[in-house]
Amino acid sequence: MFYSKQLLSILISYTAVAVVLSYNGAPAYSPATGLKNEFFTWRGQQIRYQAAGPKDADQTCILVHGLFVNSDHWRKTLKGLADNGVRAYAIDLLGNGYSSKPAIDSVEARALNGENGRFSDDDDDSTAPSVLKDVQLGTANGGKRVTDVDLRHPLGSCYNFYTWAELVQDFTREMCRGNQEATIVCNSIGTMTSLQAMTDSPELFNGIFVVNPNFRELHSAEVPFPSVSMPAVRAVQKLLRENGQPLFDALATPSTVKEILKEPYAIIDAVDDELVDVLLSPLLTDGAADVVFDTLSYSAGPLPEQLLGDTAFPNGKPVWVCYGGKDPWTPPKRVDRLSDFECVENVILLPDAGHCPHDEAPEDVNELIMDFLSNVKRPTKTPTQKSIFGALFGR
Fold first, then answer.
1. Are 96 and 69 in contact (CB under 8 A)?
2. How far apart are CA 45 and CA 379, in angstroms?
3. What does the angle CA 179 – CA 66 – CA 286 come to, to the nearest 5 degrees?
4. Average of pLDDT values for 75-102?
5. 388 or 93: whose pLDDT is higher?
6. What is the pTM of this model?
7. What pLDDT is stored for residue 250 in this prediction?
8. So what's the pLDDT on residue 227?
9. Nearest Cα residue to 161 out of 151, 171, 170
């Protein structure tokens, strides 16, 4: 019962964060970056993105946001990379920000779903199961455990990591035009989108820089005693989908937004009025609440250790991870153990930051990203030691 209450508390908390963070109504220019809001047509949908830095830059970064936010969350990263001569693109994933939000049960949403044809139980040529057996995952105290991982969205929704990964791949193909590999920079649940994109199309990317991975506490593989906990979680998820709009509306005020954002942010000064405005305004557009409650029901899909440990993950594609030591959502010992994977060259602690170091401590994160770009640009460079302190002080 204790675990059920704890999980329900997490779900309600995520709902609150979603409300304060929920192609229509976009201003011509972002008030956070001053960059033009542009749109990429993808499978009949409009995907909003921002671009910064020289078009003929030697290196290109694709910035993939986290849960319920949008490309404006990279406001300080876009500027930092552009100032260093890097071409950077930040997109709003389908259903997020000012990108299109097709109705979950619509024909167009079903047609573009990235889960289509992925699994062997789809009665097609795929040989991949929708439930992976005996996958080794981490624990909060740095241990290991073995469990099954359900990959398919329980509602069959298009708002899943496979759809978003395919979007990132197609966007990269269009923007890079095959001239160079891009580097992915991602935050929070953007980690799964990015790792899946690398797995699907390794020829497009030269590495991934992760800012605070998320291990998805509401995934059926993550909850304690799922046979007891998941029925309760599913019931609350269903209740929110059917009756959550009044709660969503009640919480969608700037003052409430600012207070709730102070939970994941450890550096409170970063929670300014500009941040509140650019995260809240898109959540007030048509269809945003439906996507939020659908995403809160997504207790399945790929997980960080499962993707990094998959034999399909390409060799020679480096991954660096940085994380805030005061992040209330990301267990530090579990993050540190990601260095066990061969592709993870560095796990770097930023002791004073929370869940969003790219917005809380942008100078530190931008410097680390530039170090990573130097590493992937010159693959003959001596391999970087997997050391927190080496990364912090040995540059």
1. yes
2. 37
3. 100
4. 98
5. 93
6. 0.89
7. 86
8. 87
9. 151
